[in-house]
Design brief:
about 375 residues; nine-stranded antiparallel sheet; DNA Polymerase III, Chain A, domain 2; alpha+beta; 6 helices; eight-stranded antiparallel sheet
Length: about 375
């Protein structure tokens, strides 16, 4: 192997690929990044067996070849290499020679024969702008359960609904749902992307401004752009029938400015107890919407929030953190809060944006 390419291009690609390397003691080759130089392209591959990635970089390839190099070493090296010039790589006695204008480096390789293949996924296809799809995942993934005890709720659930793609996640204490419009009707039953994989998918594609081709099959999903191919396993399980817990009507509504609500929650947090508990008191007939919090070691607080209130008086306890999390998914300046009684969930909608819905379960007093 002998090739030359841009320092910046390989630096950015290695940062992306190194995220996916595995820390596997029984299969140490997973700690490495596989380099495949062929034609006019250098391909960098890594996998942790749950998720796999291949990034293509244009290169002047003088001699084709394959080598595996530890990802942590490459990441450390290229974090300090700077400049926008060219860099030369050459395989010498199974070790990789790296040369720039200022540096001459020799990297020890690892045996690459056992490096797993990145699966080629075949099935139903969807092409959608990367920003739109990633926005769908980002709008809900934080509501998934972190624990893997119940993998079906430790996932982002994606399913088609006419010309919409629906993203949902829940940890049984709160639930987020986001709908994005697509240009085709799909027929797949729905897939469950594990939470950890969903976070990596966000990191890899978040900054891209191009279309992404998504292919779905029973056990795998793949994502393809001009330079990146990523595959992820999907969870074999059934997502809860969440629509049955969403209230069809509400007895109390409050429309408030998002920033007013956020500021009030942050003040209330200072005085909340070890369970992050706050109390929402809404009295439409008295035009009162207040948040109360109390901590025997710190003190107590009542904050009034201006808003348009309607319906019956209600008082309910919530984990303030669960409410605060959803604001990363809301661009609107105003929120619509819908409640029923003390023991029913609260629904949060952005005003003027029906594509997002957030449900928070109340806490017992």
């Amino acid at each position: 192997m002998k090739l030359e390419c841009s320092i910046n291009k390989i630096k950015n690609s290695l940062i992306t690929v190194d995220r996916i390397t595995g820390k596997n003691l029984t299969l140490p080759v997973l700690n490495s990044i596989l380099w495949v130089a062929s034609g006019k392209v250098l391909k960098l591959r890594s996998t942790n067996l749950n998720i796999g990635i291949e990034v293509s970089i244009p290169a002047k390839i003088e001699k084709e070849g394959v080598v595996a190099i530890r990802g942590d070493i490459l990441s450390s090296l290229f974090s300090v290499l700077s400049g926008d010039g060219e860099i030369t790589f050459e395989l010498i006695d199974n070790n990789l020679s790296v040369k720039t204008k200022s540096n001459s480096i020799l990297l020890k390789s690892t045996p690459h024969e056992d490096f797993p293949t990145i699966p080629v996924v075949s099935g139903e296809n969807l092409t959608v702008p990367a920003k739109k799809f990633i926005n769908g995942i980002k709008s809900v993934y934080y509501s998934a359960a972190i624990s893997e005890i119940k993998p079906e709720i430790g996932s982002v659930y994606i399913y088609p609904e006419n010309d919409l793609l629906v993203f949902v996640s829940t940890d049984s204490f709160r639930l987020a749902e986001k709908k994005i419009k697509i240009k085709q009707n799909l027929s797949f039953d729905g897939i469950l992307i594990p939470f950890k994989n969903a976070t990596e998918i966000i990191k890899v594609f978040d900054s891209l401004d191009e279309d992404i081709k998504i292919t779905l099959q029973k056990n795998q999903i793949s994502f393809l752009t001009k330079d990146i191919y990523l595959t992820s396993r999907v969870v074999d399980g059934n997502f809860p029938d969440y629509k049955q817990i969403i209230p069809k009507t509400s007895t109390t509504e409050a429309v408030v400015l998002k920033q007013d609500f956020i500021s009030s929650l942050k003040i209330s947090n200072i005085f909340s107890d070890k369970f992050n508990q706050i109390t929402l008191n809404i009295k439409p007939h008295e035009k009162v919407f207040e948040i109360n919090s109390k901590n025997i070691d710190v003190g107590e607080n009542t904050t009034n929030i201006p808003g348009a209130l309607s319906g019956e008086a209600v008082s309910a306890n919530f984990n303030y953190k669960y409410i605060l999390d959803c604001f990363q998914s809301i661009d609107s300046d105003s929120l619509n809060l819908q409640l029923n009684d003390n023991n029913k969930p609260m629904i949060i909608h952005p005003v003027g944006d029906p594509s997002f819905m957030y449900l928070v379960m109340p806490m017992n007093k």
